[in-house]
Amino acid sequence: MTHAGSLFGMCIKGLSIAVMLGITAPAFADDYPTKAVTIIVPFPPGGSTDVQARLVAKGLAERLGKPVVVDNRPGAGGSIGAKVAASAAPDGYTMLFASTSSLVSEPVLRAKGNIDVLRDFAPITQITDMPFLFVVSLSSPAHTLADVVDRARKRPGEATYASWGNGSVGHILGEMFKISTKTDALHVPYKGEALGVTDVIGGQVSMMFVTPVNMPHIRGGKLRALAVTGDKRLGVLPDVPTFIESGFRGIDLPMWFGFVIPLKTPPEIIARLHKEITGVLRSPEFSRAAEGLGVTVVGSSPTEFTQRVRVDSALVADLARVANLRMDN
After folding, report:
1. Burial, 207: exposed, middle or buried (Cβ in 10 Å; 0-12, 13-18, 19+)?
2. Which of 130, 118, 173 lies closest to 323, judged by CA?
3. In a 3-state reduction of DSSP, which class is residue 157?
4. Which of 37, 169, 265, 299 could crosslink 278 through cysteines, CB 3.0-4.6 Å?
C-alpha cells in the first residue's frame, strides 16, 4: 500500500469507528461550527451537481445552525474546484461536493498535476446514484438510437457530442458510445452540463449524455431522450429504452455524487458532518427532491464510499486503455 493509501485508510478507520460508536467530539470540535461552511462545487450553476449541493446546503445549514455557502469553481472537468478544495485548511469549513467525473474519471485520465482523492481527501459520504439519458435536440431527424447510429455511419465526420469537460463521465460515455456503435463523433467539451445542453437544444451539437436534472427540457419539448444507461428504464420516462434493450452493450458508467474533505480534517468533525449530511438525506424534503431529479439516495459510510472510488477508478482505467484515452495536461 502506498503512503497516501495508508493515510487515507487510517483516516477512514478512525472516522468509521467514531461514526459507528457515536463518539462525541472533544472540546474543540464541540464548538464546531463557529462560522459559515463552504461547499465547493467544481461545475457551474444549473447542472445536477450544483442542484444537489444546494439542496444539501439548505438542510445542512438548518442542522448546523450556521450558513452553508455553495462556491462554484468550474473548469477542467472538475479538477479546478477539486484542487481549490484540496488546498483548503483541514478545519472542517471547506468541503468538496463532487461526482464520478471529478473524483474518478478526470483524475485517472489526467496524467500530470491532478488531485488524487485517495491522497488529498478524506471521505464523508456518497449521497446519490444517477443514470444518464442520451439526448438529441427535438429538431434532430433522429427519433431512435438506431437513427443516430445509422446517420453517423452514413455521414462520417459530421456527428458531435457534448460533455461537461474533458475527463467527465459524459466524455467517457461518449467514447464508449463510439466503441459500442462503431461510429465516430467529435467531442465538444464545455465547462458545465447546462452549457452543453444549451447547444444541443440549439442544434450546434448533435447529441449528449445528460443527467435527469434536464427532465424539464425533455418534458418541455426541447430535448428528445433516446436511451438510458443502466439495466432498467426510468419510472419517469417509461417509454425510453435502455441501451441494452436497444441492442448496444458496454455503454454505462456509474454516476454518483458525494462529499469529501481535506485529508487532515479532525475525524470528530468529519463524523459530525457525516451525521448531519446523512440526516439531511433522510429528510422528506430531500427525498421528494431526489425523486424529482431521478436520483437514488444512498448515504453511505466513509468506508463504503472509499471502496466505490477504488472500484470505479479501476473501471475507468480499463476503459482508458481500450479507447487509448488520456489527457496530458
Report:
1. buried
2. 173
3. coil
4. 299
Give the C-alpha separation, 102 to 197, whole Å. Answer: 19
Task: Identify whether the C-beta of residue 64 lies closer than 8 Å to the C-beta of residue 276.
Answer: yes
> Per residue in 241-269, pLDDT tens?
999 999 998 898 878 999 999 999 999 99
**pLDDT digit string, tens, across residues 151-184:** 999 999 999 999 988 878 899 899 999 999 999 9
Are the C-beta atoms of 225 and 136 separated by less than 8 Å?
no
Distance CA 157, CA 162 (A): 15
The candidate with the shortest Cα–Cα distance to 79, out of 45, 118, 110, is 110
The number of angstroms, rounded, from the C-alpha of 69 to the middle of its chain's C-alpha atoms is 19
Here the cell at position 156 is 462520417
The C-alpha R_g of the chain, in whole angstroms, comes to: 20
The span from the CA of 9 to the CA of 16, in Å, is 10
Quote the longest CA-to-CA distance of the chain: 69
Tally of CA atoms within 13 A in the half-sphere of 309 that contains its CB: 31
User: Which domains, and CATH codes, for the chain?
Assistant: 3-130+254-323 (3.40.190.150), 133-228 (3.40.190.10)
Q: What is the pTM of this model?
A: 0.75
